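Crash report, auto-generated. Payload:
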Amino acid sequence: MAIKTRQEYVESLINVKPNVYIAGKKIENLLESPYLKTTLNNMALGYDWANDPQYENLVTNTSPLTCEKVSFWTHIRQNPEELDQLVKAINHFSSKYLCTMCMSMGLGSLWAATWDIDQAKGTEYHQRFKNFYAELQKNDLRFVLGVMDPKGDRTLSPSKQPDPDLFLRVVEKREDGIIVNGAKMHTTSAPVAHYFVASPSRVLGPEDEAYALAFACPTDTKGITYITRPAHGPLENRDYESPIGCKIGFVESLTVFDNVFIPWERVFMCGEWDFTEPFINYFSSYVRLAKGTCVAARTEMVAGVTALAAEYNGIERAAHVRNKITDMIVDAKIGYGCATAAAKLAQIHPSGICFPDILTGNAGLYHTRLKFVQHLGTMQEIAGGIVTTMPTEADFKDSEIGPLVEKYMQGKAGTSAEERYRVMHLIQDMTASRLTGYLMSSAICAGGTPETNLVEVFRSYNLKEKKENAKVLANIKPDPYWKPIE
Ligand SMILES: Cc1cc2nc3c(=O)[nH]c(=O)nc-3n(C[C@H](O)[C@H](O)[C@H](O)COP(=O)(O)OP(=O)(O)OC[C@H]3O[C@@H](n4cnc5c(N)ncnc54)[C@H](O)[C@@H]3O)c2cc1C
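Recovered output after restart:
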């Protein structure tokens, strides 16, 4: 059984008992907590897609490890075609459902990093990682990535921080495993996953050896506490006022490790600080491709919602409206095009995994994420001030004043006031709510901030060659092909 159903996924969590706190209270029953219902549903959606025959080509693959059909979230991509499939899947699902949980693709970076370390040091990390991966695939389990540390003073390396726990670290090595202490910040959806995977968040030096650490453990491992922030939507169903927030949402956790034991068979890096740089490069290439595709897909969602609001307002033919929606489409397609190109230009690592082109992926994400935030503002501009001033859902539904609200919510003749009222709420949800905050920070910060894109682009671009070309253009150097016709 390599692909679970939604029901099997939910049942598989019955005996998983992570230590979760939300809003000052310990969550005793994950499956019954109102705080976790949208996050659970998001995870379950992935199981639905993988079981739907119409999406078989998008979100399932055959694993060379188990020789079975496995789902999108537990596959190791081996060629540019599979990366292209990944881009198409994220584009399809994120433009309709907001999220494809694509950041988990970063896990593949440990496939290559463990291989590199073993080649250089004769360790056995890669086989351990393969065993772990096979378990994920065979049982169709979900994992979360704990990459980002709390980090304290950003200008100081882990070992220079006044509090040594601001980056997750090994505090003891034993015969049977290691003891780790510290925390990881902003772990998405942790309470509803089966495994927590930790890895370094930055390039480290020799003085930071204790922080060069990667491992996997069940989410309910003793000593781990998830201090969890509720998802952005309301707890009760408000399908007018929070049409997205009611259905889609993610909890985020500050994950604290208090002397947690990890057996050696689940440790994938322990002290190899000199391999944190390639690890970060591998991670960055996957995450930037995934994030770039996701933000482009969400931009397409913004274009569609804006066009519908323009239609209901009767302004869909206005030149400035059409131009602004076209700008949205252009930016979405630049993001999608860069992701597709990054997949096509991918390189195959000797361990068998395929890595997207880091330069193109970063350039696409940098462009699209900044434009996305701008387009949220444009969506408000086209929808109008009603987005934040309209009467509430309770008034709309009230038998006495509801008809008045309906009368004055009318837009273009032929469209219903209710439809217009619903689309304006959708825009409120996307541009003036806690969901807006999530959409913005997810575009701007998740997967590394825009500055990290610029660093990667500058580092990987062959500027030296272009400077040489400039010398030829300026006649500082001769061009052997430039010969005047005699
Ligand atoms: C919605 C969401 C979901 C997320 N999910 C996950 C997840 O599941 N797992 C996970 O591991 N992480 C997750 N993250 C974390 C994400 O990867 C980080 O937010 C991102 O990498 C930026 O790190 P930071 O938030 O610590 O910001 P910082 O790195 O502190 O950046 C803030 C600012 O400081 C600047 N800065 C940083 N360091 C320096 C320096 N040394 N010198 C000068 N300037 C500096 C940056 O350029 C930026 O402008 C998530 C984030 C979001 C928003």
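Post-recovery validation: Residues 103, 144-148, 151, 154-155, 186-188, 438, 441-442, 445-449, 451 surround flavin-adenine dinucleotide (CB under 6 Å).
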